[in-house]
Amino acid sequence: MAMFFNIFSLKNLLVLSLALNASLILRGLYEKDSEVIDGGLSVEKQEDTLMTTARVLSEARATQRARPSMHSSSSTADSDGGDTIINLDHGDPTMYERFWQQAGDKSTIVIPGWQSMSYFSDAGSLCWFLEPDFAKEIIRLHKIVGNAVTEDRHIVVGTGSTQLYQAVLYALSPQDAVEPLSVVSAAPYYSSYPLITDCLKSGLYKWAGDAQSFNKEGPFIELVTSPNNPDGYARQSVVNKSGGILVHDLAYYWPQYTPIISAANHDIMLFTVSKSTGHAGMRIGWALVKDEEVAKKMVKFVELNTIGVSKDSQLRAAKVLQVVISSCQYPTSLGSLFDFSAHLMEERWSLLRAAVRQSGLFTLPEFSPGSCSFLNKSFAPQPGPVAYISDHS
Ligand SMILES: Cc1ncc(COP(=O)(O)O)c(C=O)c1O
Known about the structure:
The protein has 11 helices and 13 strands. By secondary structure, the chain is α/β, with parallel strands linked by helices. Helix 3 packs across helix 11 (337-359), helix 5 packs parallel to helix 10 and helix 6 packs across helix 9. Bound molecules: pyridoxal-5'-phosphate. Pyridoxal-5'-phosphate (PLP) binds next to helix 6.
């Protein structure tokens, strides 16, 4: 913990999360027992290099302030007399605020006190707590962006995709198995996966680590996060044996982060507004699920866990998606939400690359460009999560 406070007492802190997530760094800071963290960087060295890069990035941001730019109003306020303080506790997607400010009342909804009182949204449907208007906008959005197949899929809404992740684990684990089902993902993976998987020490499932070295016999769940958090690469399943069930976390499969090459067509796909529109506080995610029984069990989990999902949030999410869709059809001066956010990501990546180049201490991943069917241009991925920085020396 001492190291944590050392680093946080600095006036300048390092932005490793370009936008939305700083969990990789956090994991490094909290993992006291381990000398070496991702990328083979020793903790001592990490502290050193964090400080140096914090200075370099701070200088880069000062340069950015001198130019007109599209950066968010609330990302890193200079309330301390010029030094930049960045909260590394969590990535927070407030960077799209400007777009939503410009949308103004178009994204406002009013919910009278007598509305949304029932537990039920659509009592007869498989996901009885899913607001039909929200379901409709999800389908329209995927169609217009072209990033996922929605035909022959059940939509399950969740309190963030974090709840849906747990619902999937519950749904896929046999209730009568003699031992917990193994859950794996290829390293480096989103650092919350193991924590969420094991937090209740479930008898149904258990975190089993890196998918690349997984060789246990029997059934397992493999999480495929594409683009991946934290390194931004497009991913496919890596476990080369039968008995696995794939869960695709597509939180970042949106045109601001990566070219949309084709409509994802997997059995279980997870999405969230926190990464697509920037509305993390709404706590809304959705799953597209092919198998009816799996979808029913996921619904059961959400029922047992929170008896459904906030209707108010779903109605607001429906409105937000409506505005996103209409920004694609009738772009404003900022373009569509995806034009705006893709530009922002491009700008941030170019700043980070310049700063890292100047530091001479790190390397950043290089991505090959791909042709995006939605933005109609070719570009290299510009991931939202933590940039993966490795030691050069
Ligand atoms: C890959 C990935 N999946 C899921 C989540 C969680 O999303 P939500 O805010 O919808 O719970 C995150 C958040 O950082 C993420 O990076």
